[in-house]
């Protein structure tokens, strides 16, 4: 099942990097892709749904259990997750020790353009344990909003790490359909028009995606994938097959939904179906900073987290 978690993350990154947002007016799927890239969402809500199976184990998340809301113009956003605690496979007593008593693992994250905030019932248990050795356990209500980092903190971390922009390609919107087809097919992505249908309450163009996993390591030519993501795709291509469906709203020309389907060979095998449904955020959606919060500087968290990663072997190649 761990391999499927990685597969889901990489699949989402690959599809979003190559598929921007979408409109259309004809049956040529590459013309639809061009219109698609020209009609981005200014404010968008993305509800994630997932069903993954591996052997006798199944994980199923209803759409909305994971939700992203973004204001792309203002550079603000939020993230919500509410996962069934049973998906951890732990007993009730063990979960209660972590502060999980309502049957779900909940986390909310908010970025208001200036600072990143997080809130989870888990924090009251995990933070004191994580920071006990340093003696920097923050005081206050740890079950409420925590101010984790500011924009300047992220800028400083990026500078310290020597981070550079991920490779990007020519904007699909600036290319003609033939050029889009050439770039996508070079990266192992083939589109096909599947008709017009009612989807998510509106008429939509349906385009299917076929992926040649042996070519997906070239995906950097159509999106902004990092070297590490490309390496993950290369490894996954050896044991994994992927396909997808995309729906584009006829009225607005924007991307309505992306579905990804995968299957893997090997000892753990398995399948997954991942859905990303896009819509306008509810009226009144706000990205304002919380009225109160507890400072938990990211600098105080990085040391213990990196130490734990090293002890578990996660910090090694």
Note the main attributes of this structure.
single chain; 317 residues; alpha+beta; twelve-stranded mixed beta sheet; 12 strands; globular; disordered N terminus; disordered C terminus
Describe the structure.
This protein has 317 residues and is α+β, with helices and mostly antiparallel strands. 28% of the residues lie in helices and 33% in strands. It is built from 8 helices and 12 strands. A 12-stranded mixed β-sheet has the order 7-8-9-10-11-1-2-3-4-5-6-12. A hairpin with a 6-residue loop joins strand 10 and strand 11. The protein starts with a helix and ends in a 5-residue tail after the last helix.
Map the helices and strands.
Layout (H helix, E strand, L loop, with lengths): L1 H18 L9 H9 L5 E12 L2 E15 L4 E9 L7 H6 L6 E8 L3 E5 L3 H9 L14 E5 H11 L15 H10 L2 E11 L2 E10 L15 H10 L3 E10 L5 E10 L6 E9 L14 E2 L2 H15 L5
Parallel strand pairs: 6-12
Antiparallel strand pairs: 1-2, 1-11, 2-3, 3-4, 4-5, 5-6, 7-8, 8-9, 9-10, 10-11
Helix pairs in contact: 1-7, 2-6
What is the tally of helical segments?
8
Mean pLDDT: 77
State Rg: 21 Å
Distance between the termini: 20 Å
Approximate strand percentage: 25-35%
The residue ranges in which pLDDT falls below 50 over 5 or more consecutive positions are: 1-25, 163-170, 308-317
Q: Name the overall outline.
A: globular
Biggest β-sheet strands, sense, barrel: 12 strands, mixed
- Number of E-state strands: 12
In terms of structural class, how would the helical and strand content be classed?
alpha+beta
What helical percentage do the residues reach?
25-40%
Order of helices and strands: HHEEEHEEHEHHEEHEEEEH
Strand order of the largest sheet: 7-8-9-10-11-1-2-3-4-5-6-12
